[in-house]
Amino acid sequence: MERIEVGTVGDLDEKSVLRLSLPDGRAVTVAVLADGEYAAFEGLCPHKGAPITEGRICEDVVICPWHAFRFDLRSGEPVGTPSIMKLSVLPVTVESDRIFVTITK
Ligand code: FES
To answer: Rounded to the nearest whole angstrom, what is the distance from the C-alpha of residue 60 to the centroid of ligand 1?
Structure first.
């Protein structure tokens, strides 16, 4: 596990997201949830491999750009499509206005 600094609190508000590319090529998206907490997720959609980090975020879910499946940004659980796998969500911490995401190597 590795903790990576992805930005500062001032980089994000409830209407914006941070889309990052890690040194190993993985894509990560960080978003602000309705309650002001942060959520992060990575990788490809567990349905058919769409670039889920490019998905639209609405009401604490991300909507896959290919088939519009929805995933809860806190748990990674699918919303309304219980038969598919979970989205890979990442722990987020904030220290002195700096935002960190913990990734697995
Ligand atoms: S690839 Fe994401 S819903 Fe199909």
So the answer is: 18
Does residue 47 have its Cβ closer than 6 Å to ligand 1? yes
CA of 8 to the centre of ligand 1 (A): 30
E strand or H helix at 40? strand 38-42
* Other C-beta atoms lying within 10 Å of the C-beta of residue 75: 12
Domain that holds residue 19: 2-103
CATH code: domain of residue 90: 2.102.10.10
Distance 83 CA to ligand 1 centre (A): 13
The distance between the two most distant Cα atoms of the chain, rounded to a whole number of Å, is 40
Write out pLDDT tens, residues 47-102.
Answer: 999 999 999 999 999 999 999 999 999 999 999 987 779 999 999 999 999 999 99
> Atom of ligand 1 at shortest distance to CA of 48?
1
